[in-house]
Amino acid sequence: MTYFPYKDFSYETLLNQPFIIVGPCVLESYELGLEVAEEVKRVSEKYQIPAVFKSSYDKANRSSIKSFRGPGLAKGLDWLAQIREKTELPIVTDIHEPHEADEVGKVADILQIPAFLCRQTSLLWAAGKTDKIVNVKKGQFLAPWEMASVADKIRESGNSKILLTERGNSFGYNNLVVDMRSFSIMSKFSFPVVFDATHSVQLPGAKGSSSGGDRSFVPALSRAAVAAGANGVFLECHPNPDAALCDGPNSLNLKDLDKLIGQLKNIWSLLI
């Protein structure tokens, strides 16, 4: 059973081998979340690689106040708990405020800190105090070496179960670029380093009231990141990205997940 059901899942699972974090950007419905999770599990088993299901109950940093944010905390956690129980996949989801940490920690195996909030001391502390794994997205405004101080804030809470995620840096207006040196630099902090392939091809605010993106670059950047030393790859997937309610332009089509994970597994096997 190589997908590591949540009952057996631990930080050591991620320390000892490559892994993937995959799911739709936001929970549009329970049915869509389950559809994606079941495909993630199938691919995980096929390629013998641990997988974590990702989706958000609330996207609090949308470009427009009119943008879809998700089902909210209570309904979203209920859907995530059901998906977790049905598929046995571990779960990761974002928190945006310190008071959410304890409630989310009852369901999620990993608490995720969004990039824009990666230096929020109270949020990092609250996530750390749950004793769950904490995945921190590196802010688009930070150098990779600055993530050492971010990790220290979590460690001061008594929790060293940390993941650091690269998701590109601001490159002028409405554009991001990935510095492949980040993986070597952040790996020196002794935590697994993840590549957020789909947010790295985002074009923030490029559509005025929403972000754009170009998903065609996701496979190439993912392969490059794994070759450069990424321990895990984060991918937002949707069965119909053009109709997605959040981050559709940069989301991978679910039908393309199998091929990409097969390629990444082959690259990882050459490096181990």
Query: What is the residue-averaged pLDDT?
Result: 93
CATH architecture label: Alpha-Beta Barrel
Which range does the strand content fall in? 15-25%
Number of domains: 1
Query: Spans with pLDDT under 50 lasting ≥5 residues?
Result: none
H/I helix tally: 9
| CATH topology term | TIM Barrel
Total beta strand runs: 13
| SSE order | HEHEHEHEHEHEEEHEEEHEEH
Radius of gyration: 17 Å
**The CATH class:** Alpha Beta
What level of helicity do the residues show?
25-40%
Order of strands side by side in the largest beta sheet?
1-2-3-4-5-6-9-12
Instruction: Give the CA-CA distance, first to last residue.
Output: 21 Å
Describe the largest sheet: 8 strands, parallel, barrel
Can you tell me the CATH superfamily? Aldolase class I
Broad shape: globular
By helix and strand content, what is the structural category? alpha/beta
Describe the structure.
Helices cover 35% and strands 18% of the residues. The protein has 272 residues and is α/β, with parallel strands linked by helices. It has one domain: TIM Barrel (Alpha-Beta Barrel), CATH 3.20.20.70. An 8-stranded parallel beta barrel has the order 1-2-3-4-5-6-9-12, surrounded by 6 helices. Strands 7-8 form a two-stranded antiparallel sheet. The longest helix has 18 residues. The two termini are 21 Å apart. The mean pLDDT is 93.
Which SSEs are present, and which pair or pack?
Layout: H1 11-15, E1 19-23, H2 30-47, E2 51-54, H3 73-87, E3 91-94, H4 101-105, E4 110-113, H5 121-129, E5 133-137, H6 147-155, E6 162-166, E7 169-170, E8 176-177, H7 181-187, E9 193-196, E10 202-203, E11 212-213, H8 218-228, E12 232-238, E13 252-253, H9 257-271
Parallel strand pairs: 1-2, 1-12, 2-3, 3-4, 4-5, 5-6, 6-9, 9-12, 12-13
Antiparallel strand pairs: 7-8, 10-11
